Each structure stands twice: as C-alpha cells, then as structure tokens.
Amino acid sequence: MIIACPACNTRYAVPDSAIGIDGRSVRCAKCGHSWFQHGPDIPAPESVADPAVQPAPTPTPPPVAEPAAPAASAAAPVESEPRPAAPVPAPPPAASPEPPMVAPVPVEPESAREPEPELPPLPRPVPPVDRPIVASYADDALADRPSSFSHEPPFRPRRNPAKLWMIGAVAFALLASGAAVAIQTFGLPGFIADYSLPFAEVEPDLVIDFPPKKQERRTLPNGTEYFSASGTIRNLSQRAQNVPPMLVVLRDAQDRVVFNWIINPPVEKLEPGQSADFRQAMVDVPRSATSAEIAWAKRN
C-alpha cells in the first residue's frame, strides 16, 4: 500500500497489515505532520455457493389395515413398521475469517516530542596568509637555475624585430611631420638658420653701407609684400678688390630668419677708394619680417 503525506506529498510504501481495514493515525517522518489514514479497499469476498440440500424424502404413508375378522380381533396386535429417520441437515458454510485488527499507534503530542539537538556552528574560514615561498636547495649550484614551481615562467617571449622596426618608423614619421609643421609655422631656430646660411668670411678691405632708412617695405595693390634692399659697397684698401656676392637676411620680432636671398654685386672689381651702389627688390616676402641685414655670401 502506498500512502502520501498531505502536507509535503512524501510517499511511503507500507504493508496493508500495518494500516488495517479500519485505518489508523500515522505521522510523516519528514515533516512530522499527523493524519488519519483509511484502510485499504478490500473487495467483497465472492459468495460461496451452498451445496444443494436435497429435500428429505417424503415418507410413504403406512397402508391402512383392513378390518380383521372378529375371530382375529382377540389376537395380539401386530407391530407397525418402523418409520424412517429424518434427514440430517447439512452444516452451514464456514464464514471467511476476518483480517486481524491492528491497534493504531498513538501519535505523540507536539509537546512530548524530544527537541532536536542543536547543530554546532560552522567553523569560520581561516583567511589565507600571504607568506613568501622559501625554497631550499640541497645543492647550491641549483639555486641559480629557474625553478619549475616559480610564479614566473622560466622563459621570455621572443621579440619580434619587425614589430619594433614598425613602431620606430611610425614614431620617426610623427616626429618629422611635427618638425615640418613647426618650421613652416615658426621658422627655423636662430642658431640653425645662421649656421645654414651661406655666409662668407669677412672682407676687411670691402665695406657694405646698408642703412635701414634706405630699405623700402610696402604692400602692393594685389596684396603681395614688397621689399627693396639698397646700399653702397666701398673699397677702403690701396689696391683693387674683387667684389663677392651679398646675402640679404630678413628676421622676425623673435630674431628668427624668415627669408633670405643673394644679391649679385653691381661690379666685379673695385679700384682703391672706389664705391658702387646696388639695389634689388623682392616680392612675396613673409609678413612677419621686421628687420633686414646684409653680409658677404660665399662665392660660387
């Protein structure tokens, strides 16, 4: 027989004899719920056919005696025939034995139950302690070798030279482009510009008069910047001197070179005490140019 707890639906397989026909109070072993469990449905026993009782034979009535002659009346009476015994009725059928009754197990009250033992509290986890791993070697020569149990791998990843070259090329391109933009915007630094200019050695016997008042600077109607450089070359020696070309340099307010060009001399040679005037104009000069200077240039 299978019974189920109505509270937690826990199913139990119990023998029919444990519950009995009339049922009994049971208790769930899982949740402790008690209820009355009815007995199993026992089918009605099949009726046993009673053996046919044969009817008792009907007794034959005794023959009626004819009146005897008077002479025979004084004779002794004749005994009548014995009657047949009555039939014995068949014994009644034996009734089916009733199943034994099982006394229900009394359910203990809630107060009579033994209290469940309290479980001890769980131990607290011990926090891990970070301690350095100290390894000792039986042979001191093994101490310099990388350990197989170290937290670092005993090898290093192989470098990729192509990747390093690519990173260097990208960095150089960025620096070069930044320098080009800076030179385009602000010009070369003064020391670099002066070093790169094709200045020649000083000519002690030739002097260039380049007064600022004679330099002409104006803006043309089409918006182009115009600059005219003019001056005088003098030979102060007592002999003839070959005249080299001249270099005109324009600087901005920060004394940076923003423009330069070469002026060819008006004459190739000057006699002692002789002088020669020169004048040359340039357009599209930078607007940031604020001053001009002149010096001897290298000969070609």
Automatic annotation (TrEMBL):
Residues 66-79 have a biased composition (Low complexity). Keywords: Membrane, Transmembrane, Transmembrane helix. The lineage of its organism: Bacteria, Pseudomonadati, Pseudomonadota, Alphaproteobacteria, Sphingomonadales. Residues 54-65, 84-107, 118-128 have a biased composition (Pro residues). Residues 1-36 form the Zinc finger/thioredoxin putative domain. Residues 42-128 are annotated as: Disordered. The chain crosses the membrane at residues 164-183. It comes from the Bacteria. InterPro entries: FxLYD_dom, Pistil_extensin, Znf/thioredoxin_put. It comes from Sphingomonas ursincola. This is Thioredoxin. It holds the Pfam family Zn_ribbon_4.
